Amino acid sequence: MGANGGLRGGLSRCCAARLGRGLGRDEGGAVLVIVALALTALLGLLSVAIEVGTWYAERRSLQTAADAAAVAGALEIARGTPARMTSAATAEAARNGSGGDRVAVNNPPLSGPLAGRADAVEAIVTREQPRLFSAIVQDGTVTITARAVALTRDAGEACVLALDGGAAGAVSGNGNPNVVMPGCMIAANSNAASAISFSGNVSLQAQSLWTAGGVAMNGNVNLMLARAATTHAWPLPDPYADVQVPPVGPCKYTNHKVNKSGRLKPGVYCGDLTITGNATVTLEPGEYIINHGDLSVQGNITIDCDCGTGEGVAIVFTSTTGAGQIGGVDVRGNVSITLRARSSAAAPLRGILFYQDRNAPAGSNVFNGNAALDVTGVMYFPAQTVEWKGNNSTQGAGCVQIVARKVVFTGNAALGNNTCTDLGARPIASSLARLGE
To answer: Are residues 85 and 162 in the same domain?
Structure first.
């Protein structure tokens, strides 16, 4: 009995040990299951976190596209082509990685601090991103949105605008001229690498330079700009493109020559109008239409205007006998000219001192010699070149604009735009764009 009892006791201890080892093995399996489940959950969370990180990366990419779209749209507003705003913004967004996304362009912005501003463009780029790991907890796509607002800003006004779209040296200077226009810019619509070109001992003081092409400086050029030149920009519009030649009546004078002091009356001058010798000539206010002829001034001549408040003169070059007969200006010698354009709101060529028919053939209009030019107004020669030569200078420089196919400076000149608004001359304005939000 004692033996059997010992046996039972031994067997009991043996079974207990085996049971203990079995239970130990069961606990290890449970831990493995728990660890496996925890690792699965952790990997799931990590995967979702990585996916959320990709959403933020996509958001940064969309922000770049939205910024580019807003600036592109604002640039179209700046260049005066608002109809192209949406297409330009959409194209620029696509170029910056938003192909296939929704692009909304608003001018003015619909929300934000700049809402309602006519000089601001809002771009909103939206992307629907498919879900990956996060689809476990939620169906559908993730909407990622980026928004930007760009503002146009005034880049200044030009006193000189060359309209030629491809000429090298559309605005040029050489020799020893001193060109002063601290309140305004020189602009050239040419896309040539040397659209604005200065060489020699040129001294130029201006607010800035603006061109669709590039700027070339050679020699001992003293360039004094208040702001760095803007190159490879867009062409500036001709502010007088809608101004037409006034009606041409019958000839009042034909091949008229003046060689002594006296007065000239407005009217239609057919053929050349020549002023020469030693004379002082006073122009009465009004329109001087030179029909198929030139204005030639040579000698020791003084020309002024008998003009009161709001009054002035407009000298028009056109032709009723064919475009090839449209003339221009040739000023040489010791000439003193004091003229200004009409500023009356009723004047058909308000603010314009010289107007040449835009159908004129290729040619040049020369202001040469020791001329003292105190002129106020616009010198408009859209089809021809203006050559500013000799020791010329516009003494007052209150408002002097040159709009021509090309402009060449080889003599001294002082131009300004201080009184252009009062005179009625239209601004030759340029604008840029920057991000505002």
So the answer is: no
Q: Are residues 263 and 405 in the same domain?
A: yes
| Boundaries of domain holding 54 | 2-139
> Do 333 and 193 have their domain in common?
yes
Q: What integer pLDDT is reported at residue 2 of this predicted model?
A: 46
Structural domain includes residue 328: yes
The answer to whether residue 314 is domain-embedded is yes
Task: Compute CA 262 distance to the chain's CA centroid, rounded to the nearest angstrom.
Answer: 47
List, for the chain, all residue ranges whose pLDDT scores fall below the cut of 50.
1-12, 14-20, 23-24, 44, 133
Please give the DSSP secondary-structure letter assigned to residue 346: T
Give yes or no: residues 102 and 175 share one domain.
Answer: no
Those residues whose C-beta lies under 8 Å from the C-beta of residue 267, and which sit 6 or more positions away, are 249, 252, 253, 286, 287, 288, 289
Residue burial 41-65, b: 16+ Cβ < 10 Å; e: rest: eeeeeeebeebeeeeeebeebbbbb
Q: Cβ contacts of residue 435 below 8 Å, gap of 6+?
A: 67, 70, 71, 148, 149, 150, 151
CA 116/CA 27 separation, integer angstroms:
70
Among candidate residues 93, 109, 139, the one where a domain is terminated: 139
Sign (positive or negative) of CA dihedral 164, 165, 169, 172 = positive
Could you tell me the sign of the dihedral formed by the alpha carbons of 322, 248, 252, 367, in that order?
negative
Rounded to a whole number, what is the distance in angstroms from the first to the last CA of the chain?
99
pLDDT, position 129: 74
pLDDT of residue 418: 84
pLDDT of residue 46: 52
Domain boundary among 89, 111, 139: 139
Tell me: do 113 and 165 sit in the same domain.
no
Instruction: Supply the pTM of this predicted model.
Output: 0.77
Residue 437 within any structural domain of the chain: no
Instruction: Provide the β-strand partners of residue 406.
Output: 385
As a whole number of angstroms, the longest Cα–Cα distance in the chain is 164
User: Into how many domains does the chain fold?
Assistant: 2
User: Is 318 in the same domain as 254?
Assistant: yes
Write the Ramachandran bin of 19: left for phi over 0, alpha for psi from -120 to 50, otherwise beta: alpha
Query: Is residue 147 in a domain?
Result: no
> Of the candidates 192, 184, 199, 185, which has an alpha carbon nearest to the alpha carbon of residue 164?
192
Peptide bond into 108 cis (omega under 30): yes
CB atoms under 10 Å from CB of 40, counted, come to 10
Whether 167 and 301 share a structural domain? yes
Helix 85-95 and helix 2-78, axial crossing angle in degrees, nearest 10: 140
Are 283 and 375 in contact, with CB atoms under 8 Å apart? no
- Residue 253 has which token pair? 């004078």
